[in-house]
Design a protein that fits this description.
two-stranded antiparallel ribbon, 5 strands, 4% strand
Length: 287
């Protein structure tokens, strides 16, 4: 509809004695405006304005130099010349002076970013002291699938050093799969029926003393009133004699069906999880 109005207006201007070349430049300016080429539109209008066209000067003022103007007004036809025995030369009124205003960008102005101080770098004092023999055992267990119910998945399967201590995919595959990263596929006698509904996070600095909440849903945390107590869906974990929240976190992937335990009927750990036998000497953790 807008193009039709523009075309009709240009036709009227040409019939009324308007310069066809000027009409062509005006048409080019509108076409450039419609396709978002503001530079071409400005250039076309500027050429007309410099040639003394008052309509072009007005549109330059409205469209490009007035803040908040979204679209130009329709072109206004010049007044028809009054009949006269002798044709008098047409006097073109000088273009009004252009008021320069800040250039209007199609994108919103970027707000100045607030500068916040970076936290201080971590040092050895921010972590617990390392017990070398326990760390060696933990290193072996981290890469050993013996902790999973079907003996096919280790901690490193989904937190691999070559994958940034994650698994490299948005939704992971735990037990019942083979391969690493995006090459991991359901395979074997206990092939996984579904992916884990979240990604495996990186493990960097999770042993720092300042960490007080773990898991994507925050289900494991240090009790603010009693720092020695770990709050979890499985209730108090004091009988396990865990000395950090990270030690408590390690236990939960072991009893997650899709992560490490497996499904009912596949192994004793999975059966205990299904029967909600988690604690005690015959519970999933003990198994």
């Amino acid at each position: 509809m807008r193009s039709g109005i523009i075309f009709s207006g240009l036709t009227f201007l040409a019939i009324a004695g308007f310069d066809p070349l000027a009409a062509q430049s005006l048409n080019q300016g509108y076409a450039a405006m419609d396709r978002g080429d503001f530079y071409a539109a400005f250039s076309a209008m500027r050429r007309l304005e410099q040639a003394g066209d008052p309509n072009a000067a007005r549109m330059l003022e409205e469209v490009f130099l007035t803040p908040g103007t979204a679209a130009p007004s329709p072109p206004v036809a010049p007044p028809a010349p009054s009949p006269s025995p002798a044709a008098a030369p047409r006097v073109v009124a000088p273009a009004p002076p252009i008021r320069m205003a800040p250039a209007q960008s199609p994108r919103p102005q970027m707000r100045a970013a607030r500068v916040r101080p970076l936290p201080p770098p971590l040092t050895d004092a921010d972590f617990r002291e390392i017990d070398a023999p326990l760390a060696a055992i933990g290193h072996l267990l981290f890469f050993d699938p013996i902790l999973s119910g079907n003996r096919d998945t280790s901690c490193a399967t989904c937190h691999h050093p070559r994958l940034g201590s994650g698994d490299g995919v948005s939704l992971g595959l735990g037990t019942g799969a083979s391969g690493l990263g995006d090459a991991r596929q359901p395979a074997g006698p206990h092939a996984a029926s579904q992916r884990i509904p979240r990604n495996a996070p990186g493990l960097w600095n999770l042993g720092a003393r300042e960490i007080h909440t773990l898991f994507h849903d925050g289900r494991l945390e240090i009790d603010p009133a009693q720092p020695d107590i770990r709050l979890s869906p499985q209730g108090p974990l004091g009988y396990l004699q865990l000395d950090s929240i990270l030690a408590a976190q390690v236990l939960f992937p072991l009893i997650a069906v899709e992560e490490m335990s497996g499904r009912r009927g596949e192994n004793p750990v999975a059966d205990a999880v299904h029967d909600e036998r988690i604690h005690g000497d015959d519970g999933a953790w003990a198994l």
